[in-house]
Amino acid sequence: MTDKIALTPKTHTAPPAKFSHGIRKGNILQTAGQVGFLPAEEGRAPVPAGPTLREQTLQTLANVKAVLEEGGAGWDDVVMIRVYLTDVAHFPEFNEIYDRYFEEQALTQPPAARTTVYVGLPPGLLIEIDALAVLG
Amino acid sequence: MTDKIALTPKTHTAPPAKFSHGIRKGNILQTAGQVGFLPAEEGRAPVPAGPTLREQTLQTLANVKAVLEEGGAGWDDVVMIRVYLTDVAHFPEFNEIYDRYFEEQALTQPPAARTTVYVGLPPGLLIEIDALAVLG
Amino acid sequence: MTDKIALTPKTHTAPPAKFSHGIRKGNILQTAGQVGFLPAEEGRAPVPAGPTLREQTLQTLANVKAVLEEGGAGWDDVVMIRVYLTDVAHFPEFNEIYDRYFEEQALTQPPAARTTVYVGLPPGLLIEIDALAVLG
Fold first, then answer.
1. How many CB atoms are closer than 10 A to CB B44?
2. Which ipTM was obtained for this model?
3. B124 three-class SS
4. Does the beta-carbon distance from C134 to B19 stay under 8 Å?
5. Rounded (10°) CA dihedral A109, A60, B86, C111
6. What would the pLDDT profile of C73-104 be if each residue is shown by its tens digit?
7. Cβ-based contacts of B123 with chain C (< 8 Å)
8. In whole angstroms, what is the distance from residue B93 CA to residue B36 CA?
9. What's the CATH class of domain A4-134?
């Protein structure tokens, strides 16, 4: 039987419920939905990186990346990125931030597929992202 | 060629459109979005387990589990759970119900990753859940 | 290392950001979220197939299919279809269009699992769909 491994980066708080920040099983790695919380500090409630779309997007991407790396993967292994925004008006700015971020990641593989939809999120959060990677 | 197997638990109505309640192909099992409908009774339209978040969440989880089991899987095989709620205010109660449920399932593996977002659903439905499992 | 292949059908515009219309890696193929844009014409901004749910649904399904085929797959390989509608009132008509479409596709395998939720999309778009296929 293949191991099912929970991925918990050191930067992350314990999840607020009985789920894992990411799971790797065999060559499949799926991250939980990440938001723009700063690295956890003991005894402090989770705090978003800031109120702006830019701050939250970059922190969210950093949080997804941390889960990927905890599982021995990176952006080059990701086949699908699901993006949940809260405001359709954010789309152009989000794309600029996203593109610049991935240019800086210096991918050696084609970028992942992506779906972006507009949903409700808890107050103060503008974005949530999860990623599916296929390793090897 | 690997078989693509439709999973149709006995408790489930025929899907309302040309889709399967779950598919297993090789070691991948994906359930369709499940809602809180009670086990099907012939000649009766689908009926939610009740109006409350608790009733619908527990029935929805039971329905997902039924699809998993129809495919020879269980919660321990699930790598990702996607949760669609209709009201951000439901999050704390939902987490309580979810945690208690999975404590009772006595998982032997780490819990699945999870993404929770807030969307619209048909009238009367408070929650929808689907799950991705990797077997073996 | 298994190749990660970007899928870009000839009918598709370049994605509006650094993502791929679809990715195939090994036996996994994931399409990006497709909408009802007509085949791309150089120098023209993307144009939806029409304002109606029917026009957009059929074009969206055609766009998903084009990505699948670019990756050597087809509807029979799809295990999961995620449908994002913008209006709960569209569900019955959507199901009719969906069922008719898949009858015409003459599937030789069981239909994919499906999750349908109601979200916000950019102005003028009524539907978005992505698909996960497992080949072989």
1. 9
2. 0.96
3. coil
4. no
5. 10
6. 999 999 999 999 999 999 999 999 999 999 99
7. 88
8. 16
9. alpha beta
